[in-house]
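Feature request disguised as a bug: please show the residue count (570) next to Carboxypeptidase C (Cathepsin A) in the output. Example input:
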Amino acid sequence: MHFRLCWLLLAVFLASCSGSSDSEESDASTFEPLPVLERSVFSYGAGDSIYYRYVDQTPTSKTQVITVKGVAMEFTATAGHLVASRPVNGAGSRDDAAIFYTAYARDDLPKDTRPITFIFNGGPGGASADLDLNFLGPKSVDLDVLTSASTTLPLIDNPNTLLDKSDLVFVDPVGTGYSSAIFPSENVDFWGVDSDASILSDFVIKYINTNKRQYSPKYIYGVSYGGFRTPIMARLLLERSATDYAEGKDGKNILNGLVLNSPLMNRRNDCLTHSTFACDGAVPTYAMIADHHGKATARNAATSDVFLIGVRSFAAEFKKHYDGAFSGLGWGDRTGWEAFLRDNKEAPPFLDRLYQLTGLGKVFTLGDTAANNPWIENPNMNAWRFTALFGERYGPDRRKLSLNDGRDYLPPDTIDPAVDDGSDVYEYVRQYQRQFIGYQQAASYLGFNGESFDRWSYSPDQKLPSDPDRIENSIPDLAFGLQLNPQLKVLIQHGYYDLNTPFHKSELDISRSGIAAKVPVRLYSGGHGVSPFDTDGYDQLKAELGSFYDQTPAAKLARWQEAKLAEPGQ
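Example output, currently without the count:
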C-alpha cells in the first residue's frame, strides 16, 4: 500500500529522492549546513524523539494568490507543528507527538461554511508532500523549465488543485516529514494501526480548535495506506463527538466525508499478502492490463464498463472454483486442483478464459503441464507472480510490470517502488517551503520512512461491536462510522491498472460488508494513487470529486434510503 512519487527532474535539482540517511544534509548550494543538537531537531528512527521544549507551535504563514480556470483565489499558506496526544492504558498517561502540517486556507470565504480537508499519504511511512506539490495543492513545479542550473523552484499554478472546493491540510504522520514523537515517547510507539490513527485524529481536533474551524464541513482524504487509516480516524472522531471542541460542543458537524484513493482496507484476505486467499479481486486488473498491452483477446469492441461486467462475472466463477477445487494450493495440497484438471467439462473453458483475459498461458488441452501453461501450476496467481510472468513473456528485456501501474515496465535491476523500503529525503520540499511559505527547518524532510514501513503493526488495540477481529482490516471501522453518522459521505477512487490495491478487491470487500449502497467505488484510467500524472481522465475524476463535495449530507442520506428501499425483500 505504498504511494510515493520520486520527481526525477527535481532530483537533478535538489536530490529529491536521494535515498540518503535521515541525518544527512543536501550538497545543493541553496542549503547551508545547520548545527544539530541532541533531540533538538527531528529524527526518524524507531527509538527517536524530540524534547518538548524544542517544539515550536508558532506557524509560519504567507498570503498567496493563484489563478485556476480564470478565477483568482487568494489564500494563506501555512506550515508548522501542533502537539497531539493519545491516551495510554486509560490511567491518565499519554503519548505526545509533534505533528507537522502544511495548510492552505482561502481568505475570502466564511469559515463556517468553507470545507476543510485533512490529507494523508500512504506507505505506511509516507509523508504528505507527494500529495501537495503537483497533485492536490495550489502549486506545481514547471518541469519544462526546471534545469540543474535553477536556483529556485519554477512554480506554476496547479490547475488540478482541490483548493477550489476545500481548504487543505497536508499532514505528516509520526516519523515522516518533520513529525516526531516527544520524549519519553518514541516514534515506534505510533507505528501501528490504532496508535497512528489515534494521534492523528487528536491532531485534527487540535487543528480545528487552534484555527476555529469547529463549524466547518470536515473531510479526510487518504491515499493508499492513507485509505486504511482514514476509516479508523473517522470512527475515532465520531466516537469523540464534539466533546473536545473548544466551542460548538452541541454541534453535529463532526465529520462530513471521506475520500479513499487507491485503498486496501482489508489486508487480512488479500492474496498478495496472504497466499491462502482467493485472488478473484485481482483478476479484473489483470484483464485491464493485458488489454492495455494488446495481449488479451476477450474484450473486442466493448467499452471498459461493459468489458468489466463480464470480467467481474468470471471473477465470481473464479472464486467458486477456488472454494471448491484449488483452495488447498496455498497450503501445498494439490488434490482438489489435480482432480479439477481431469474434468474435461469444467477445466478447459475455465483455463481458456484465464488465457483470453490475461494473455498468459495457452488454449488448454488435456495433458498440459506447468511447463507450457503457468495456470496449471497455480491458478490463484497473485499480482507479484503476474508482473513477473507477463514481463517474461511480453516485456522488453523481460522486464517486470510495475505493481503500482501495470501499464509500465520497470527499468532493469530496479526495486519495485511498491515494496521499496529505502528511506527518501526530499530536499526539494525544504526549498519549496522556504520559497513559497517562508518556513525554514533545520532537519531534513523525510519523504518516506522505510523503517516505519518495515516495522508497522497491523494488530489493533481494541475490538468493535460490529467485528471483534480488526487485524489488518479497517472496514469494520468504516461500517461502524457509518452507523455513528448515517449521513457520512464516502467516495472510493481506483485506477484500472493498479496491482498494488486492485479495484475489484475494494468492490468485493465493500459489498461483502453490506455497505455498498453507501460507498460508491469510482474507476479511472490510472494506476495506484490515481493522480494527474497517470491518467488522461483526471478531468472526470476532478468533476466527480467536486460533485462529492457539493453533495449535501441530506441528499446523500436520501439516496441511501432510496437504495435500501430498492433492495430485494424491502
